[in-house]
Design goal:
2 strands; DNA-binding; globular; homodimer; mainly alpha
Chain lengths: ~80, ~80
DNA sequence: CGGATCCAATACCGTTTCGATCTGACCGGG
DNA sequence: CCCGGTCAGATCGAAACGGTATTGGATCCG
């Protein structure tokens, strides 16, 4: 699991679409798809339901989204703490 | 910044030596050296004082160590939360 | 002194990972 | 039907990564 994967996951969860998340992240769509897939593989549980209209968070995804945001917040806080030393 | 870098940093901080941290992490010493350096570059402040006896945490390093542990704990908690879904 | 020792840092190389582009598969709306 | 929108797979060039070998610097000891 990488921080990039976590950021991609949060973006997809928030946008509801891999493509829109990709645009927001300024990268192409397939890499986002792959990262989400590999994240699910690593965690051992599906996080999204794939529908023709986009990606819908599953219960496991909701749980992980909460933790993911905490991780990213902790990272941001860490960098901010050193910004003025 | 990557989770691997954060793990390497914590290991070096705990061991006090790049080499020992590397052994603990089951990787070679140079990669650890490089990751620490690039982490410092990215954060814009030195985290360790290089001494002939090893690496000694600077004040900025102590601050970051605290945050680093929180990040890793959050990651562990995230994976644990999905272990049983 | 001077060589041995113990560190981290650098150079270089092969492998792996990553992202971009192109393409395919699937479903819903007109 | 076919068309628009969406995700997934294949392929390729570029970047990152880790390993080995080596260098550089500072201390210790004979």
């Amino acid at each position: 699991m990488s921080l990039a994967q976590i950021r991609y996951f949060v973006a997809v969860a928030e946008e509801g679409h891999v493509g829109r998340a990709a645009r927001k992240l300024h990268i192409a769509q397939p890499p986002v798809s792959r990262h989400i897939r590999s994240l699910e593989d690593e965690l051992g549980s599906a996080l999204f339901a794939r529908t023709p209209r986009g990606m819908k968070l599953l219960p496991a995804g909701e749980v992980f989204l909460d933790h993911a945001r905490k991780i990213l917040a902790a990272v941001e806080q860490a960098t901010r703490a050193l910004r003025h030393t």
